[in-house]
Structures are given as structure tokens and as C-alpha cells.
Amino acid sequence: MNDLVQKIKERLSIVDVASSYLKLEKAGKNYKARCPFHNEKTPSFFISPERNSYYCFGCNAKGDIFSFVEHFEGTDFIGALKVLAERAGLPFSLNNSNDETSVLYKIMDEATKFFEDNLSKNKEALDYLIKRGLKKNSISNFRIGYAKEEWGSLNDYLLKKGFKTKDLESVGLIKKSQSGNRYYDRFRGRIMFPISDSSGRVIAFSGRFFKKVNEGSEIEEAKYINSPDTPLYNKSNVLYGLDKAKSTIRSRDYTIVVEGQMDLILSHQIGFTNTVAVSGTAFTDSTKNNEDKINNLGLVKRLSSNVIFAYDGDDAGIRAAYRSSMIALSLDMQVKIAFTRDGKDPADTILEGQEKWKNIIKNSTDTIHFILKDICEKTDNKEKRRNQIEEKIFPFLVMITSSIKRSNYIKDIYEKTGIQEEAIIRDFRDYEKKQGNKVILENGVIQEKDKPNSRQDSLSKRLFAILFWEGESEVDKEVIKKTKNDFIKSIGQEEFEKMQNLYEPFSENLIYEAEKWYENKDNLLDKDIEEIVLNLEEEILNNQLYLLFINIKEKEKSGKKEELEQELINYQKIVEKIESIKNLRIK
User: Are 206 and 195 in contact (CB under 8 A)?
Assistant: First the structure.
């Protein structure tokens, strides 16, 4: 294994690896990027080609190419080794390691081979897959198999291979009988879809019953049986097909999420290889679990913050897409919904013609706009619409931290429903007060929402850390002094003092952070502080714009024309300031 590690290091540099995941910017001898391991707008993640390592001054993440892949993809060292070996064009085998966890991976791989071999010999199961539209190369690529209608064939096979019963039970392949006298296979008489981690190692299975359900029998057969949570598999940490989709997700900058394995495989067959599926997995409302491991949507967000939910077109599919969208919005992702209006699932739609599926994805709609259109189509009664907007749209709207985006949505609601804008604003403000820091997530369950405007707080801390520090060299001191004066001119002395008083009690800690960021780092302070200030000014102005927007609506209602004219002038001035900041960033 040590030999393989060394060969990988000889072939791949930290810049090679990091640049395939992140957009890097040259910074002297080094490179910098926005850290993928915590939320930030101003880059604090630095990559050193000289040391072949990385370090984040924001969250203290550090390491080499192996720890980077481990951390980014939520895998272990062997998983990272597999990813990097394949990228370096070097052979990798699970036999490279014999620790306890590696043995479990070997069991899952051997079980997959067993199921694949069974499928090649079972004409009925193979014909079923081909009739459903799967091509032979797809069956092979996704390692689809078949579990025999026998109680112990897999158990017997794996025991003969030298694996232990306790390990087979640990990975969820066998179960103990109620009497406790014997073990039997969990999966029997089913099409087997292996679920892999981001590095491509099989960690679980989803078994589909494919014959006529319950034909001639009183015993109900579940359509799908999935592996239980095991030492290798937590259903919230993985999405089906992510190992094959991640590269295209990065390059195309969006993810398509479908419900079933058939939906995914057929989508991949027609070129939508940035598709993943939720079948056999589950979404959670955070990017990490209790063990600080990256969850499935957290990993998807690292690859791209843009996601399209393309679930079944029936009522159940629409409800599921709404729940998933709510969770994605809570993670600050950009969310769209794509549906067939005839109630069909994606697999059946794709079989009708790939152009139809392409158009459905192309015409995907922003979630809130999708719900709004649905409300408008189902009723023209303003009072009913108003109630449904509070019930169906406000839970989504409250998740959005951008004041401008909220304002735009409120304007769209007004234009499409005819409900007075000030009434929508008033209803939404009342809704926010009732919810406090809480939002409605899945099945009506109320969860705590993170404090809004964390971006402004993060930027403010970074700026005042530098202002309190005052710099090391005379050049630094001049840059900081000029920045402080310019910032005060931009936001006003009173607002500046409020912010300064807020962070003054933490000045010593902030100074220490600034020293870590910038000591012995030539030519970084000038560029970084400019970007921090631009982002912070824009955030402050956006919040001012939102408050001004509400005031304007209230002035319109009261009929105070002179005050309204002045507010409109102020509004335009702020818009112009925001535009000037954007222009500075372009230059």
C-alpha cells in the first residue's frame, strides 16, 4: 500500500487534485479558493504546490491530496486511495488492505459478483430488465444482479469464501431466524441494485421484486427491500449513482435527482450522467451527521449548488419533491422542479423518447414559481389563493436569506395572483414572527433554522479582525487605514461604530486570526481586504434595499407622495451602489 501511495503522489499534485473540485486563483507562489469545507464568500483556502498541501485559515482544515479527497467526498483513506489511484492510471484492489472495515468491503464486492453471475444465468430476470429499456452495457456498468429464490445461497457462497457469519450479518446480507437457530439471506428472488459510496465501493443493496406481485399468494411482497444501516452504510450519507455522476455534476454545474434506480439508469443512457437517485437512501436537513460525516445533499452541494428534482409526476411524487426542495433550500441551494404532467415516472417518459425528457429538464421551474403556478391553476379565488400562499409558499420563502430574492418572489406572487403586494408583505412578516427561528420541514415536523445573515457576520468578523490587527508592515498599515476610511464613507460613521462595538469584545481573538491569515504572506492582504469590503458592502446594501422596499409599499398605501418620492430616490441610489460594486468586481 505504501508503494501505491508514493506512486500516486509522484503522478498527482495537490493543484491537480484540488483544481478538479474547486476554482483556483493564483496568489503569489500559492493558489487560493473558497473553502469547500465551510461556507464562505471570500477565499481563505490556500494551496501550496511547494509543500503539496492545503490549509484553510477559516476552519483550519489542512492536509495532502488524500485527506482532501477524504474530506471532500466523505470517504475513508482507502476510498480516497481508490479514487486517486484510478485518476493516476494505477491499478487498485481491495486486497491492498486487510483491516476489519476492508474485509466488510470485500464481502460486499464478492456479494455483488455473486448476484451478477446469477443474473447472467437467469433469463427471466434479464429479460425483465431489457424490456424495461436497460441496455446490456448499462446492466454491466451499474453491476446489476439477481438474488436467487433460495434461503441461503448467498450465505453458503460467502462462508465458503472464508468470510465470517458475524461479518455477513454486520453488512446486512443475512438475518437470524426468529428461533435463533439459523441464518438466512435477506434478499431473495429480487433484482439487485448495488449502492456505492462516492469512491465506487459497494456499501449496500436495493432489491426489487420484479414478478407479478402476490400472484397466487396471500403473502404481500414489498416492491423494494433495502439494506439496513450498517458500519459501511448510512442511508443519509449516500445517493444511488453518485459515484458515476459526480464528475458530470461538477462540469455541468447542476444535479438531477430522480426517485428510482430505473429512472437513473435510463437517464444516464441518454446522456444525463449528472443524475442521482434517492431510492434506498434518505435526505436530511443538514450537511453533516452526528459523526461529522458529510451527508448526501451536503456532498451534492459541494459539487454544485444547483439541483433539479425530477420525481414521478403523480401527487405522491410532487409531495416528495416539495419535501426534498425544502431541505435543499435550507442548505442554501438553488432548487428547481421538473415534472411530467401525465403522472408518469421518468423511466417511462424517457422510453417514450429522449427529446421529451430533455425538454422536461430544460423547462424545469424554480420551486416557488412551480407551486405558485399550481395554486393559480387550481383556484381563481383571491382569498383561497392568499391562504394557500401562506400554507404552501411561505415555508419555502422563509428559508431564503437574500432580501432581494424575497422581494422578487413577493412581486411575482402579486403579479400572478392579483393580491395586493403590501398584503403579501404583511402576511409574510406575520408568518416570520410566528415561526421565529423555526421552519416547517418534512411531514410537518418543525426544525430550528440557522440564524439568517451569517454571511454578513462572517465578512464583518473578517474585516474587523484586520482593522483591529492594523497590519505588520507600513504598507499593510496604509492599506488598512485607507480601507477603514473608505468603508466609513460607504456605510456611515454611526453604522461603522455600531459594528465596531459589536466585535470589540472579541478583538484579541480576531487579531490572532488575522495574524494567522496574513503573516509572511506577501501581496495577499491588499486583494483580500478589497474583496471582503466589496462583499460586505453589497450584503449591507441588499438588507437596506429590502427594508426600503417595505417602507415604499407602506408609503404607497398611506398616500404620502413627498415621502414616497424621497424613498424611491434612496432606493435608486442603493441600486446604483450595488451595480457599481458589481462593476468593480468585474474589473
Answer: yes
- What φ, ψ does residue 274 adopt, rounded to 5°? -95, 30
**HEC-encoded secondary structure of 208-231:** ECCCCCCCCCCCCCCCEEECCCCC
Dist. CA 316–CA 319, nearest whole Å: 5
What does pLDDT average to in each consecutive run of 10 residues of the chain (587 residues)?
84 92 87 85 86 85 92 88 90 72 94 97 95 96 96 96 95 88 92 94 93 51 86 87 92 93 96 90 57 71 92 84 85 87 85 91 92 90 90 86 81 89 86 63 43 64 84 79 86 85 76 67 66 81 78 74 81 81 60
Question: For the CA atoms of the chain, what is the radius of gyration?
Answer: 28
Cβ atoms 11, 20 nearer than 8 A: no
> Residues of 333-352 as b/e, b for ≥16 C-beta within 10 angstroms?
bebbbbbbeeebbbbbbbee
Sequence-separated (6 or more) residues with CB below 8 Å from residue 420: 414
CATH number of 98-226: 3.90.980.10
Task: Classify each residue of 531-541 as buried b or exposed e, where b means 16 or more C-beta atoms within 10 Å of its C-beta.
Answer: bbbbbbbbbbb
Strands 438-440 and 365-366: unpaired
CATH level 2 (architecture), domain 2-95: Alpha-Beta Complex (3.90)
Cell, residue 226: 433495502
Q: How far apart are CA 149 and CA 475, in angstroms?
A: 77
**Residue at 394: amino acid letter:** F
Please provide the CATH number assigned to the domain covering 242-363. 3.40.1360.10
pTM (two decimals): 0.69
**Of the candidates 87, 18, 23, the residue with the CA atom closest to the CA atom of residue 55:** 18
Query: What letter would DSSP give residue 530?
Result: H
